[in-house]
């Protein structure tokens, strides 16, 4: 590991860019349309400031918290992401890293590894569900996640299937047949370390989504499952309530940006709300999620747990989210850059960067616990907050 440690998520991202084939890197950058939302998720954190103290700060800081009934050693949860072709250990490496650092992780329905393997690596796994197929299909996936030992459910409902990008989308094949291999060969051969990691593991990326199948059934292809999801009519609020009652356990609705939706989610019985715009990968023009957080937290924060997802790249960002009303922050791309840079150790490195950044920010602003943070701890410029709905 010597020499592979990195000091910030930005450094990890640069390493990922050098290591990953162009299409895989571009699939993580993602974004949609002009990238307005993706960029605003990052820019908005830059608009928030701090007023540091010069003496009298606490000598130690409390970082532990709980979310959806789980103890977290610091207030960060890994967002669910479909980790296709980034690293041969994929979501299992993320799960091991999350377990070693004492945080929970979401596991995507579109993940490359079966839920049973991932939960074995990290018992604090929340399974992430899309509204895809019939109620029986969805209940079957929940049942499989429950049997595997998942301790919570995340329903992600903010997806509208428009992934056109002004900078062009990467080529993602349905499977790695000879034609796809030929097309991808130049960019893959330019990244021999990535190719070698897969060859050493004994298999090229399968590009399948095992968790969209019932246990024991063959894993569908990514695009096969995507097609089923696309053809499924959007869920109603009754469907949301049905998911909550079918799961019968801690349940997060991810993708909430509006106050009225947050209130309906409370009525549907959720445990937690993730204020999120899918990392800027869904409807472009949606404001940064951190701008929408204060109004949502004020409206429902005393009834459900509110977390912030989108644009978090450093520990001070996590502190800003907590000061504006979140209980924890979720991180999507940050751990993926770590995973791409150096597997499990890279994800651990990212989590360490976040943890130490939270600690040093608390010290600088004179807070002894993440539970003390309030909006007076951040400098919020006029017009920053957006109340939607
Ligand atoms: C490559 C990639 C794949 C993603 N896949 C999923 C997914 O399968 N399910 C889901 O709920 N969200 C998915 N997301 C969204 C993340 O869970 C999260 O909302 C987003 O990455 C947060 O923004 P951040 O990357 O700025 O932290 C994905 C995001 C990226 C970048």
What would you say this structure looks like, in words?
The chain has 389 residues and is α/β, with parallel strands linked by helices. Helices cover 44% and strands 11% of the residues. The chain contains 14 helices and ten strands. The strands form two sheets. Strands 3-4-5-6-7-8-9-10 form an eight-stranded parallel β-barrel, surrounded by eight helices. A two-stranded antiparallel ribbon has the order 1-2. The mean pLDDT is 96. The structure holds flavin mononucleotide (FMN). The site of flavin mononucleotide has 25 residues, from helix 2 and helix 14.
Report the span from N to C terminus. Answer: 49 Å
Share in helix: 40-55%
Mean of residue pLDDT? Answer: 96
Principal-axes shape call = globular
What value does the Rg take, in angstroms?
20 Å
Major sheet: 8 strands, parallel, barrel
> Beta-strand percentage?
5-15%
Task: Give the structural class.
Answer: alpha/beta
**Could you say which small molecules are bound to this protein?**
flavin mononucleotide
Written as H for each helix and E for each strand, in order along the chain, the element string is HHHEEEHEHEHEHHHHEHEHEHEH
What is the number of helices? 14
- The number of E-state strands comes to 10
The low-confidence runs, each spanning 5 or more residues with pLDDT under 50, are: none
Strand order of the largest sheet: 3-4-5-6-7-8-9-10
